[in-house]
Each structure stands twice: as structure tokens, then as C-alpha cells.
Design goal:
Layout: E1 2-8, H1 11-23, E2 30-35, H2 41-51, E3 66-70, E4 75-80, H3 87-92, H4 95-98, E5 102-107, E6 121-127, E7 134-140
Parallel strand pairs: 2-5, 2-6, 4-5
Antiparallel strand pairs: 1-7, 3-4, 6-7
This protein binds adenosine-5'-triphosphate and magnesium ion (MG).
């Protein structure tokens, strides 16, 4: 398991890390985003989307918890599991069908552990002492250039 740790002091810095990671993602990759409210999971997702060539705004949807975007090379599935109680729901909606040809980002992945494949890249977001400091811990089974 490879582990990387970064301290960022702005949304821009968090998105720069997201863009670096985003360049190294391929169809079938699942990225599990874990952390409290407002720690930067959606901000990070926006960075990944940008580097994938997605120009639409990526938001945390209020009424849907799964959004699809078409990138230059891959489809991006952005999921917010905050309101999903049981991972079975997510699996039944066909998350596993998406694995093969898409990159999947799941916010609040810790709430749906059964839906997360073991080989997923996990990112743990924590708030720091100042209002704009965040720590990102990235865990990956393959080596990443970050
Ligand atoms: N270093 C930083 N990295 C990321 N975001 C930051 C940073 N500093 C400040 N912010 C701000 O923190 C907020 C993070 O919100 P964001 O929606 O990305 O969080 P989230 O983890 O997706 O929350 P939720 O669990 O509600 O979906 C944004 O308003 C962003 O501008
Ligand atoms: Mg969010």
C-alpha cells in the first residue's frame, strides 16, 4: 500500500493535487473520498473533473446522489453517498456496472463500505487548525506520482 500525505492551505492547492491524481486515473478506477462536512471532497472532485476535460460545474447534488459527466477520455461518475443508508442500494443501482468504463468518485465512501472495491484509491480529508488548511492522506495499491 502506498501512502501520500499533503497539507493544503487553499482550495486551489487541493485541486492541484486532484489534477495530478486525475491524470493517472483510468477506466475502472474508484476513488473513495472520506472526511467530515466541508473538508474538500467536492472541491477535490472538481479538480479531477477539470483535468478530465469536463467543463460543467461539479456540485454536491441535493436531490440526486449520482451524476455522470463525459470527459475527453473517460466517463466520470460522481456519487455522494451521504444520504444512502445501505450500500446494497448503491450496488443495486448498478455501481458495479459502472466500474469497467468509468472513473468513479464517491464522497462519504465510508458510509457504503460494501460498495467500495478493495483496490479503490482512498483519500482521507481532515480540517487543520486554520479555516483553509486541510490534510489529505491518499492510500493506493499502485504507485502514484503526486
Ligand atoms: N485547503 C482547502 N482545500 C479544500 N477546500 C478548502 C480549502 N480551504 C478552504 N476550502 C473551502 O472549504 C470548502 C470545502 O467544501 P466541499 O464542498 O469541497 O467539502 P465536502 O467535503 O465536499 O463537503 P460535504 O461533505 O458537505 O459534501 C469549500 O468552500 C472550499 O472553498
Ligand atoms: Mg461534497
Amino acid at each position: 500500500m502506498f501512502e501520500y500525505e499533503f497539507k493544503t492551505i487553499s482550495m486551489h492547492e487541493t485541486q492541484k493535487i486532484a489534477q495530478k491524481l486525475g491524470k493517472q486515473l483510468f477506466a475502472g478506477d474508484v476513488v473513495a473520498l472520506v472526511g467530515d462536512l466541508g473538508t474538500g471532497k467536492t472541491t477535490f472532485s472538481q479538480g479531477v473533473a477539470k483535468i478530465m476535460g469536463i467543463h460543467e460545474p461539479i456540485s454536491s447534488p441535493t436531490f440526486t446522489y449520482i451524476n455522470e459527466y463525459l470527459g475527453e477520455n473517460f466517463r466520470l461518475i460522481h456519487i455522494d453517498a451521504y444520504r444512502i443508508e445501505k450500500s446494497e442500494v448503491l450496488i443495486k443501482m448498478g455501481l458495479s456496472d459502472y466500474y469497467e468504463d468509468s472513473i468513479i468518485l464517491i464522497e462519504w465512501a465510508n458510509l457504503v463500505p460494501d460498495a467500495i472495491p478493495e483496490e479503490a484509491i482512498s483519500i482521507l480529508f481532515t480540517a487543520g487548525d486554520s479555516s483553509s488548511s486541510r490534510t489529505l492522506k491518499i492510500f493506493s495499491y499502485r504507485k502514484l506520482k503526486l
